[in-house]
Amino acid sequence: MDLRDFEAFIAVAEELHFGRAAARLHMAQPPLSNRITQLENELRLQLFQRTTRNVRLTDAGERLLVPARRAVNQAAAVRELAAAIASGEEGRVRIGFAGASSQRVLPLLTRAVRKAHPGIELILQSQTYVYTAFDQLVSGDLDLAFVRIPIARPELSYRIVEAERVMCALPAGHRLADRDSVHLEDLVDDDFVSLPEDSGSMLQLTMYSMCMSAGFRPKIAQVAPDSSIVLALVAAGAGVTITLSSVCQVQTVGIVYKPIEGTEPSHLFPALAWRTDNTSPTLLRVLAVGETALPTPDLDSYGLDINK
Questions:
Q1: Closest by alpha carbon to 199, among 228, 222, 224?
Q2: How high is the pLDDT of residue 128?
Q3: Rounded CA separation 276/274 (Å)
Q4: Residue 209 φ then ψ, to 5°
Q5: CB-count exposure of residue 187 (10 Å: 0-12, 13-18, 19+)
Q6: What would the pLDDT profile of 71-98 be if each residue is shown by its tens digit?
Q7: d(CA 35, CA 41)
Q8: What is the pTM of this model?
Q9: Are strands 120-125 and 267-268 parallel, antiparallel or unpaired?
Q10: Nearest alpha-carbon partner for 196 in 147, 102, 131
């Protein structure tokens, strides 16, 4: 048996006329009659009672009609799903992001994808900091990730989606809270709150690099697993930290944010990254939506030498 046998059986059962069923199937009547006879022989059942005047289903034919229709419908559903997967309209995309630092850009992308392609399932993996994300993209454990440049992985492609200003977060009662900006040299004796050293966070590495450029190693008083808890600890008076403009709305009570003067970098640049050889049609559709939902900002004013 194959699906054409079921389709022939269903057509005759619904038309109760071999001529009309043959026309419906765009075939001649004799081959249709032969197909029904062969099906009956294979099943060892009589499906139709035929006379010169009419055709009607036997009891066996009546009982087999429902599962035959189900089989044909399921096969059609499989074909439709396969076509949707091949076109990228159905499928999964695994996206890595780093918690609070992606709180603005991630919803913009996910909402746009779900609106444009509701058949695409987005699997979101949090606490995926930059260097971890690089490894997971290369290994194939992620399809797409929010990262920050520089990206020294030749296997990866990327596109910048935002420019984040590097900020200093201080408890509201801090001695520098009334200043318009701060110099990191003024924080040499302060306690710092940080992400873990092994988190793979570029922000954590940037904080260390900036402090070392200012002539001191930050004194880490407390470590927190993500940016939102870091900022909550700063607001509670546990210390100061280096953060980003995109995260400032996470914590607004008991904390002040100040631009940093005299130390580079002034900005970090989030990007969407993916493995260059990942040609999944579903991923390509998500990337296309991202071009509109998260357009690349004007980078000329930042002095970036980049053509991505």
A1: 224
A2: 72
A3: 6
A4: -65, -45
A5: buried
A6: 988 888 788 777 777 777 888 999 999 8
A7: 10
A8: 0.68
A9: unpaired
A10: 131
CA distances from 308 to 16, 159, 163 (A): 65, 6, 14
| Low-confidence residues in the chain, pLDDT < 50 | 307-308
Question: What local confidence, expressed as pLDDT, does residue 101 receive?
Answer: 62
- Asked if residues 240 and 170 have their Cβ atoms less than 8 Å apart, the reply is yes
Contact (CB, 8 A) for 68 and 10: yes
Calpha distance 219→302 (Å, rounded): 30
CA–CA separation, 80 and 21 (whole Å): 25
- What Å distances lie between residue 8 and 55, 67, 96, 288, CA to CA? 14, 14, 50, 43
Token duo for residue 111: 């909402």
Q: List b or e across 43-73, with b for residues whose CB sees 16 or more CB atoms inside 10 angstroms.
A: eeeebbeeeeeebebeeebeebbeebbebbe
The pLDDT value given to residue 308:
41
pLDDT in tens, 109-123: 999 999 999 999 999
pLDDT value of residue 88? 75
267 strand-pairing partners: 165
Computed on alpha carbons and rounded to an integer, the radius of gyration of the chain in Å comes to: 32
